[in-house]
Specification:
The protein is of the alpha/beta class. The protein is 26% helix and 32% strand. The chain has a domain at 11-108: D-Maltodextrin-Binding Protein, domain 2 (3-Layer(aba) Sandwich). It contains three helices and seven strands. The strands form two sheets. Strands 1, 2, 5, 6 and 7 form a five-stranded mixed sheet that branches. A two-stranded parallel ribbon has the order 3-4. The chain starts with a strand and ends with a helix.
Length: 145
Amino acid sequence: MTGEVILTEDLYAILPQSHPLAGEASIHLAELKDDTFVLFSNGYSLRPLVWDACRLAGFVPTIGFEGEETDTIRGLVAAGMGVSLLPEMALYQTGTMMPAVVKIREPRVTRTIGLIRRSGEKPQAVVKLFHAFLVDYFSDHYKPM
């Protein structure tokens, strides 16, 4: 197998607008240790990232709700049902039910998106086109917060 990194992005804390830390520019993740978390269900790649970050910050998150879509997580947090962490890419949408977004300064929590293919295999034209599209899209349209 061979691969390349397309993008590495930070995860941000999302909090109900009424949360005491909602107005902060940045927080330590440990400041959320007493909060209830809204996490992705088992099997989703973001769940272990959040879990591991919490453990690194010195606590095990208390899970109040689980969801299978970014919109669900965002909506539950905005409705005051808990806090969560989401990648930058999931925070560009706007709507009436939006949580507060706060940078996590410690520990730094990231996710990496990459492309993997079999070594030595000549990619088909459509694969080359898709690869070029992804690289161009993220380099031209994706600007970190």
